[in-house]
Q: What sequence folds into this?
């Protein structure tokens, strides 16, 4: 393991309950473990699965202690929903990479008109974060045949963004994804990694 | 073989490897997945118990009879199980007896933040605290052995971040353990005053032996750094945070890692404290270790630097004990709207709550489950939530207080007087500890109303079976406890019970009105299964509601039901088809009949 690989890296996945962040992080941590890294992953279940904001922390390196990422520490922040990128932005390390799904899920406060969904989030992020990748994962996944594969599109972008392409992700996907959805997800993964 | 596992998966695996025979639990975040994983190991008898007290008693009986027993629960569950806990400490253990308490620092999914380490001290039983999944697996085996060796139940204390974090575990094989011989021993197992008093003396000897064990057991160990400047005593997940926080100073920071935390090792702690210049105690919530260290007369810094509330992180420990670094944080001017959990689209609880919004003079005593979310606007009808079952029993007291108020001549504002209390309780919570409250309400002639929101599953914790579902934890069909029959057997008059489909708003409103007007105990039982049950999802996959924009007058009545599938965007009401399950509650409140259900059920 090179010195660079030994150092603990931090991946933060954020989104909304039901978006598939848990499956994406499961594939991610399984692949990292097989590649020989020490891996810790932490997620919060419970009430958050009822449409609330959800986060998954994945940390890997030669030896990982805490399973939790602190503010200003994430090497990459992958946001499955636009406004969640804003909510968790302070966790991104200076110079870290931000991957944002260009996708809105309105919380009840917005639906009822009690709060407004912020406008031009992408524009604001472009000005603030130099290392930003906006992915239209919903469109890509829909074109491939299933809008629910957004999570694997974003996983593909994450793997590319972290330079983890040399791990055999296809075999991990094969084990963790139901057979009837396997091919679709392999395509989704590749599309996410193609940098579109 | 290496596998990445959550703490909960590792506890189940550890129990299997250690030859556990009987495992029982009531689901509760963050502990629920322990038994959900246990059931895959066919050598273990696993059950969902009616509540935590029952679970611990099942495990206790198995232990007395000579089998290895395990009971798992969330922290507040141990309050329910505290009765058998304290007396099992007297009886001890024949087959190993391990009690898992899953605490929730940060209250991710709980009504309080209690630190159950005090239970070990209070009940005089030894305690383990693992720091990751590997230790979860290995320390379960150690717990069973210790339990049998010292004739004592063992408390195994984990927290949300241990339960729900995945770390790498090396898997082992199961070691079959024979069920130990059983022989009737009333002096040890029948806790009447005389025998219990004799056992009290035995417990004192046992405590002394355990304290000696704590000094040189392999689970409490000093990790000396080359320079002995700073010493950190840490337990559980806090150990990992502390190692992380001090990782840039590893040549100067020594650790005393405590995995066996009751009784605490006083000599080892003194040795460590004397070997360092500055001593820190890193632990979440209560100053449990710190209080002990201070009673030894040792100077240390703990709670004065670290917060008592919420979970710790490496960053919090670093800022407090190493120094705050000014790192740039990215930020934009947009303010994210809050995204709290909400009742799902198609939630079967919505109708009753909506019907209650029409009454300004009712109080709603709530309970633990998804329906706690009935407190959220725009429904916003809930006056109290305490603990499992309190919706009914607290409702009895609340209703009595109203009767005092009604008699009072000095009521400053009689127009705002509350007339009726509605207790809202789910099916699993009702079986857990609502039945006793119902009997109390019947026998003591309460005039409250009770809504048993039966959605045919234990929903909030992730869809576990319960006595009303007709299946056991392992999926075997079993007798289904019938709520209507049960309520009648408990003495509720048949004419005061309404069973209804909560998707039928007219029937729901009618029943709520009858309950409101009744001057005797009244019970409403809803019958729709949770919208997230797989069969329900499949059946309703192709139905949804849609808005006829020619008829819609944008009065937004439909939004008052608080459904996340309905929005008002670009001056138009829209219903998100992919989220909607066609429950039609919105259609039923629409004064212009502008909403209708389309599609076919997959029957």
A:
């Amino acid at each position: 393991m090179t010195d660079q690989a030994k150092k603990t890296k931090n991946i933060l996945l954020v989104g909304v309950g039901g978006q598939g962040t848990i499956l994406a992080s499961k594939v991610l941590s399984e692949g990292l473990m097989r590649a020989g890294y020490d891996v810790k992953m932490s997620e919060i279940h419970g009430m958050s699965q009822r449409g609330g904001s959800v986060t998954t922390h994945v940390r890997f390196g030669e030896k990982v202690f805490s399973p939790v990422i602190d503010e200003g520490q994430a090497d990459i922040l992958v946001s499955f929903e636009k406004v969640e990128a804003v909510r968790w932005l302070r966790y991104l390390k200076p110079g870290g990479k931000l991957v944002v799904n260009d996708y809105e899920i309105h919380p009840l406060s917005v639906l009822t008109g009690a709060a407004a969904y912020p406008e031009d989030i992408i524009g604001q992020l472009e000005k603030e974060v130099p290392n930003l990748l906006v992915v239209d994962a919903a469109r890509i996944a829909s074109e491939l045949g299933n809008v629910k594969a957004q999570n694997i599109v974003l996983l593909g972008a994450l793997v590319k963004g972290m330079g983890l392409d040399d791990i055999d992700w296809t075999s991990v996907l094969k084990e963790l994804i139901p057979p009837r959805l396997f091919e679709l997800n392999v395509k989704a993964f590749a599309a996410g990694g193609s940098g579109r | 073989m290496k596998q990445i596992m959550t703490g909960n998966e590792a506890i189940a695996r550890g129990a299997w490897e250690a030859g556990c025979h009987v495992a029982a639990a009531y689901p509760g975040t963050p502990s629920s997945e322990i038994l959900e994983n246990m059931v895959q190991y066919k050598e273990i008898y696993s059950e969902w118990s009616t509540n935590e007290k029952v679970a611990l008693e099942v495990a206790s009986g198995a232990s007395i009879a000579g089998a290895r027993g395990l009971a798992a629960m969330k922290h507040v569950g141990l309050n329910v199980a505290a009765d058998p806990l304290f007396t099992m400490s007297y009886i001890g253990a024949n087959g190993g007896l391990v009690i898992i308490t899953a605490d929730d620092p940060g209250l991710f999914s709980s009504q309080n933040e209690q630190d159950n380490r005090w239970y070990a001290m209070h009940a005089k039983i030894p305690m383990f605290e693992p720091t990751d999944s590997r230790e979860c697996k290995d320390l379960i085996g150690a717990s069973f052995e210790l339990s049998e060796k010292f004739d004592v139940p063992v408390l195994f204390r984990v927290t949300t971040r241990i339960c729900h974090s995945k770390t790498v575990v090396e898997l082992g094989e199961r070691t079959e353990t024979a069920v130990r011989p059983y022989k009737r021993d009333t002096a040890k197992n029948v806790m009447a005053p005389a025998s219990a008093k004799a056992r009290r003396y035995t417990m004192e000897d046992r405590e002394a032996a355990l304290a000696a064990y704590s000094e040189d057991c392999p689970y409490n160990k000093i990790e000396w750094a080359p320079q002995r400047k700073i010493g950190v005593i840490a337990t559980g997940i806090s150990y990992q945070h502390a190692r992380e926080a001090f990782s840039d100073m590893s040549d100067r920071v020594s650790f005393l890692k405590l995995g066996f935390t009751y009784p605490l090792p006083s000599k080892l702690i003194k040795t460590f404290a004397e070997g360092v210049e500055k001593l820190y105690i890193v632990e979440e919530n209560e100053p449990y270790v710190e209080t002990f260290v201070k009673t030894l007369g040792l100077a240390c810094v703990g709670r004065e630097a670290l917060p008592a509330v919420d979970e710790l992180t490496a960053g919090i420990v670093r800022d407090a004990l190493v120094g705050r670094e000014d790192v740039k944080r990215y930020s934009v001017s947009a303010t994210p709207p809050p995204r709290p959990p909400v009742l799902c689209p198609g939630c079967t609880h919505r109708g009753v709550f909506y019907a209650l919004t029409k009454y300004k003079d009712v109080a709603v005593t709530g309970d633990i489950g998804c329906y706690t979310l009935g407190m959220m606007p725009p429904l916003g009808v809930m006056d109290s939530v305490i603990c499992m079952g309190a919706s009914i029993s607290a409702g009895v007291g609340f209703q009595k207080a109203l009767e005092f108020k009604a008699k009072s001549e000095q009521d400053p504002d009689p127009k705002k007087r509350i007339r009726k209390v509605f207790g809202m309780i789910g099916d699993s919570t009702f079986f857990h500890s609502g039945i006793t409250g119902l009997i109390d309400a019947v026998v003591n002639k309460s005039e409250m109303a009770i809504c048993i929101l039966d959605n045919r599953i234990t929903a909030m914790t992730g869809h576990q079976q319960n006595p009303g579902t007709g299946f056991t934890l392992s999926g075997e069909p079993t007798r289904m406890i019938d709520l209507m029959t049960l309520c009648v057997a408990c003495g509720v008059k048949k004419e005061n019970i309404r069973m209804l489909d909560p998707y039928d708003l007219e029937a729901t409103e009618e029943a709520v009105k009858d309950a409101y007007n009744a001057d005797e105990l009244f019970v409403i039982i809803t019958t729709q299964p949770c919208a997230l049950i797989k069969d329900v999802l499949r059946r309703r996959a192709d139905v949804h509601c849609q808005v006829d924009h020619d008829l819609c007058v944008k009065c937004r009545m439909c939004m008052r039901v608080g459904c996340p599938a309905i929005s008002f965007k670009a001056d138009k009401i829209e219903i998100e088809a992919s989220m909607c399950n066609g429950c039609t509650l919105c259609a039923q409140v629409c004064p212009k009949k502008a909403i209708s259900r389309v599609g076919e059920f997959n029957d």
